[in-house]
């Protein structure tokens, strides 16, 4: 399937460093024939090295991923925008076209890891969220179809 015929899905979080990158990685790895997957952040600040490490352990190489803003993606008309953190949900801009905006929040591994008492516990937070995101991505597109694809969404631009 050509990229033009694929569903275009954007995973959006605040930093575009961990959760949205994991979601993009899983979507490309597991659903690359069905989706053109992208990720971005409302305030990107670079890839999280631990997120990259746990994804690589699961067989997904994110070495070519870059932390980016929505504007850096250009004029892509997304079918779906999935916010993966509460801050991104609140700051989600208006998207051109008929993008359906959906929120599916996941815990913030860096925040949880900062309170961990051991490296093993810290890694466990990343691994758990990585696996939860995989399960979510595996449900796509069916998990999104029932949510009303093609509805026009009006949100406030807070970039």
- The order of strands across the largest sheet is 2-1-3-4
Provide the structure class.
alpha/beta
The domain tally reads: 1
Instruction: Give the helices and strands as they follow along the chain.
Output: EHEHEHEHHH
Gyration radius, rounded = 15 Å
Q: In the CATH hierarchy, what is the architecture at level 2?
A: 3-Layer(aba) Sandwich
Return the CATH class: Alpha Beta
Enumerate the spans where pLDDT stays under 50 for 5 or more consecutive residues: 147-159
Summarize model confidence as the mean pLDDT. 85
Globally, the shape reads globular
Distance between the termini: 33 Å
CATH topology: Rossmann fold
Q: Give the full name of the CATH homologous superfamily.
A: Response regulator
Q: In what range is the share of β-strand residues? A: 5-15%
Q: What portion of residues is helical?
A: 25-40%
Number of strands: 4
What features would you describe in this structure?
This protein is of the alpha/beta class. The protein has one domain (7-145): Response regulator (Rossmann fold). It is built from six helices and four strands; from the N terminus they run βαβαβαβααα. The chain has a four-stranded parallel β-sheet. Strand 1, helix 1 and strand 2 (35-41) form a beta-alpha-beta unit. Helix 1 packs across helix 5 and helix 2 (49-57) crosses helix 5 (119-138). The protein is globular and about 45 Å long.
């Amino acid at each position: 399937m050509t990229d033009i015929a694929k569903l275009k899905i954007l995973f959006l979080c605040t930093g575009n460093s961990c959760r949205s990158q994991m979601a993009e990685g899983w979507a490309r790895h597991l659903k690359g024939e069905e989706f053109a997957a992208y990720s971005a952040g409302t305030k990107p600040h670079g890839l999280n090295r631990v997120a990259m490490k746990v994804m690589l352990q699961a067989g997904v190489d994110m070495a070519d991923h870059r932390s980016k803003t929505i504007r850096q993606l250009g004029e892509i008309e997304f079918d779906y925008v999935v916010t993966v953190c509460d801050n991104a949900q609140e700051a989600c801009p208006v998207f051109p076209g008929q993008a359906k905006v959906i929120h599916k929040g996941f815990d913030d591994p860096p925040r949880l890891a900062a309170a961990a008492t051991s490296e093993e516990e810290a890694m466990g937070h990343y691994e758990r969220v990585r696996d939860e995101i995989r399960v979510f991505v595996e449900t796509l597109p069916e998990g999104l179809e029932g949510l009303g694809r093609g509805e026009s969404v009006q949100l406030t631009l807070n970039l």
